[in-house]
Amino acid sequence: MKVLITGITGFIGSALAHKLLKEGHKVYGFIRHVVGRDFESIQDIREKINLVTCDVKDYYSVKNSLSKINPDVVLHLGALSPVRLSFEHPFEFQFSNYMATVNVAEAIKELYGPEKVRLIVASTAEVYGIQDEKPFTEDLKLEPSSPYAVAKASMDMYMRMFFKVYNFNGVILRNSNTFGRKYDSSFFTEYLITQMRDKKEIYIGAPNSVRDYMYVDDHVNSYLLAMKTPEAKGNAFNISGGKGFTNEEWTLKIAELMNFPKEKIHLGEYPPGYPYRPLASDQPYLVLDSSKAQKILGWKQTVSIDEGLKKTIDYWKKRK
């Protein structure tokens, strides 16, 4: 198939591009022209993929770029992702995460009609916001608690409107925290691993907050299954490991695997210079129920947490 990935240089987008090539698909990627853009994540496959310059925040740019490709599937992952930064840049997050999705969906509908091209969009576990502390199911009312989550929830709702009104051929994936990054150490798991590798102090601002996790391979697999499963059309799916860890438990788990001294871990303190986030916005519990994805997509977690962490730790030790 001809598969277009927006956000192809990102964490999941680049991993998907590698996997799709191995499966024999023809891979395209939208890239926005930025001076000094880093292509490290796709450098080894640069000659095998087709990159098209496009600004997803501009409808006509999206429409013109799509018309050159005529894709069978569009995987829309292009977005701004650091939740904390969304409080400082709320407008940018709405344009990049919400309006960009509207542009992609509307352009597909106008060019190809509502059913020919399958559009799979990246929502997030963050859209659920603050709920009762039991694994979240897809039928919960969305209660976003950050500008990032509001943009993603808006996108999520727009797509569900498309499903109902136009019988649109789309799928929404609400994936939980994923680790296994190779080019960005600013996210929680990779922050812990690289700081511990370098014998630096560790700061855990919300030690009692609960999150669930999965390794990148299982995240990528959710997109492959959503591409290939006809029954996925018109559905939103939670994709998640389903087991909650407090931030303290997760930190101590990694510390044990890396033989890191616990006295260098500071609970209840954020790293110096850490972006501000209003305390009331912080979700104390974020664990997803992925039963629906298991039943309809046949998705399951194939890489255990310990195995995934060991792979990630080994990678960052070598990368030093």
Protein model, in words:
The chain has ten helices and 13 strands. By secondary structure, it is of the alpha/beta class. The chain has a domain of 204 residues: NAD(P)-binding Rossmann-like Domain (Rossmann fold). Strand 1, helix 1 and strand 2 form a beta-alpha-beta unit. Helix 4 runs parallel beside helix 5 and helix 6 runs parallel beside helix 8. The longest helix is centred in the N-terminal third of the chain and has 23 residues. The mean pLDDT is 95.
CATH class term of the domain at 2-178 and 214-240: Alpha Beta
CATH architecture of the domain at 2-178 and 214-240: 3-Layer(aba) Sandwich
SS class: alpha/beta
In terms of per-residue confidence, which ranges show pLDDT below 50 for 5 or more consecutive residues? none
Order of helices and strands: EHEEHEHHEHEEHEEHEEHEEHH
| CATH 4th-level superfamily of the domain at 2-178 and 214-240 | NAD(P)-binding Rossmann-like Domain
Number of helices: 10
Percent of residues in helices: 25-40%
Q: Evaluate the radius of gyration.
A: 19 Å
What global shape is seen?
A: globular
Query: Which sheet architecture does the biggest sheet show?
Result: 7 strands, parallel
Indicate the CATH topology of the domain at 2-178 and 214-240: Rossmann fold
How much beta, percentage-wise?
A: 15-25%
State the distance separating the first and last CA atoms.
Answer: 38 Å
What does the average pLDDT come to?
95
| Chain oligomer state | single chain
Widest sheet: strand ordering = 3-2-1-4-5-6-10
